[in-house]
Amino acid sequence: xxxxxAVAAGRPPFWRDVRILRVLWQIVFSVAVIVIGxxxxxxxxxxxxxxxxDLSWSFLNSQxxxxxxxxxxxxxxxxxxRALIVAGFNTIRIAAVGIVLASLxxxxxxxxxxxxxxxxxxxxxxxxxxxxxxxxxIILLFLYFGVxxxxxxxxxxxxxxxxxxxxxxxxxxxxxxxxxxxVWGSCLLAALVIAWLVRRWRTRINEATGKPHYRFLWxxxxxxxxxxxxxxxxxxxxKMDVPQRAGLRFTGGVQLSAExxxxxxxxxxxxxxxxxxIIRGSILAVQKGQKEAGEALGLTPFQQLRFVVLPQAMRIxxxxxxxxxxxxxxxxxxxxxxxxPELVGVGRTVINQEGRFTQVLVIWMLSYLAMTLSxxxxxxxxxxxxxxxxxxx
Amino acid sequence: MxxxxxxxxxxxxxxxxxxxxxxAPHKEPxxxxxxxxxxxxxxxxxxxxxxLSAAFILYFGYGFLHWIFVGGEWQIVKGSLRSYMIGRxxxxxxxxxxxxxxxxxxxxxxxxxxxxxxxxxxxxxIISTALVAVAGVGLLFYLIESxxxxxxxxxxxxxxxxxxxxxxxxxxxLEKVVALGxxxxxxAVVLILVGFGxxxxxxxxxxxxxxxxxxxxxxASFPIGLLLALGRRSxxxxxxxxxxGFIELIRGVPLVTLIISAIFLLPLLLPPxxxxxxxxxxxxxxxxxxAAYVAEIVRGGLQGVHQGQYEAAKALxxxxxxxxxFVILPQALRNTIPAMISHFISVWKxxxxxxxxxxxxxxxxxxxxxxxxxxxxxxxEAYFAAGLIFWVVAISLGRWSQRxxxxxxxxER
Lengths: 393, 413
Fold this sequence. Notes:
Distance between the termini of chain B: 43 Å
Radius of gyration of chain B: 28 Å
Oligomer: heterodimer
Helix content of chain B: over 70%
Strand content of chain B: under 5%
Shape of chain A: globular
CATH superfamily of the domain at 80-139 and 257-386 in chain A: MetI-like
Distance between the termini of chain A: 51 Å
CATH topology of the largest domain in chain B: MetI-like fold
Largest interface: A-B, 56 and 54 residues
Shape of chain B: globular
Largest sheet of chain B: none
Helix content of chain A: 55-70%
Radius of gyration of chain A: 29 Å
Order of helices and strands of chain A: HHHHHEEEEHHEEEEHHHHHH
CATH class of the domain at 80-139 and 257-386 in chain A: Mainly Alpha
Largest sheet of chain A: 4 strands, antiparallel
């Protein structure tokens, strides 16, 4: 059939028919992917046969034999699976604390970048320029070998004999539960409920009369008073656990290894510079008219920030902050360079020892995917909370 | 319904308000004293902040300067300068690196001369440029003793400014030449390094390795990322699923794990007869890694193109590929320039992770020099030097990108 005839019949030739082309192109693409995939698979199979690569998972049950001096209980005699779980926990431990610290520091940096004080502004800018443009691994190594290694020895690094900062790690006091802690816990819950009721009461007064509600001060004060009162009535259910030096180690309190300390500080400094820039950008992105409207209503500068600018800036800031949190999580894998036993470092040891890199790679991918997805889920929830009411999502 | 105005009402209003609220327009500080008051001591809180910040600067500034000029053991850097720069790249082949430098300097100078407007030399800019120049020259005077290197450096700078002058004289006619030059310079430099009996890429070491892997990765990842982004927005489910899966998989894992898989996994997946060396495998990994991120940036740009543009192109009867290439992409890519440059900066910083494999990059050279028995307790200096090199490149790229953004006018249309 000639082209002219096809047009006359009202049908384009098949090589110009979008419906057919659509299917055709997808088939071509799929075939290409399958061919390449098959080639890769064959190479892998060849490697498996040739080099004795083992694809089974039984190695997880064998004895690990290497030590991990960090986190959950673990000994050399435990299985490799247990070692990887301990490592995963260490990753979460550093990422979670790092995210909190980096957010706080980032907020400070972001606000300082917009300060009316020239000196504060310049310091914040220098901070951002310094840490954003240096590779995070170099910050880590500098901190770990340069700063942590120049900390005092165990015998000398005490702060009023309460906290310790030393080469062998950092230790500081931490509250521990004592007798009656359960009762106090339920008292705290009750106090929380009462505080919430007080808050509602203040809100209602404000709505009815227009008087200032001071609901935060009220509810917080009530909560604090109840908590303290019940604390003393029960008779100190919590005790400060003060670390003690025992030879070259510490007992009690919370102890952080030098590796953890260095990695945490490095990740926090690096990520906070990025978060600071995001916060600065999103505050600037809120229309100037909004602040001016707040000013016209007679709000104080703090109130303008708290009630007008920040709620709107949050909406802009949360998606990029989400990706910074994921970056921090992924950057925690640089514990590899400072011998902090997290997922990648321990996985690397397993690879060196057992040679099962395909399996370890799968474990890495799945664990990081799970962790980044959880961060994303939480942040998307927060995003929904701060989004415009009734806004299209 | 225009009610007649009652003049009494107005006076009543005025009387009620009392004296008119007079808000003086904000006066810019003129004298130095006023400036200090306004910017450092406007409120008591601000005053406290100023004092605290000044104490902070004095404390750390003194510590830092003392370390730089008195306390630091810089022999650790000076002694292993060559291993920082080219590592075990054969010394008798180092001329190849210099030729590469000269090519880049010539092209850089030419494009500066052709494209850049005349710089307005404010006092501030003069001072900051002079400070940077003095610091740089001072550093070089400390580090470099070989007269040969000085001659080469001098002629490098002369080439740069010579080409700049040439570009200025000839002017905009050379724009196409410059664009073509940047397109060709990567293959040209690689050819000079490897071709004509040059050492294999396996011998690239030190800073050379970072620069080569980073820049090849960036350039090669751009077209791949572009295709991935288009694939992700394709209406064909098979293509879309593949692209989404690929992008998310790569973006979901830390770069270090990909680098480690370049050692172990990649040789297993590629045909065994290829026998790629580690450096090439690492370049492949960096390309793939960067492509996934480029894809997301381009996707952002594509989303910014108005629906009407697609419709207009279709109404003109353009086939899909022409619509994409001539209508959609030019608009989308223009919007991605800032994000793209900051991505390139982060790829540059990420090349510091190369030593997670057995590659001997700049960081590895720093680590080896720090491990030397002569300099126990001075690893700070080694890492500082490595960090400084990364930092200088990254911050210059950042500053340059700000200029480009201003010139192209991103965000103004």
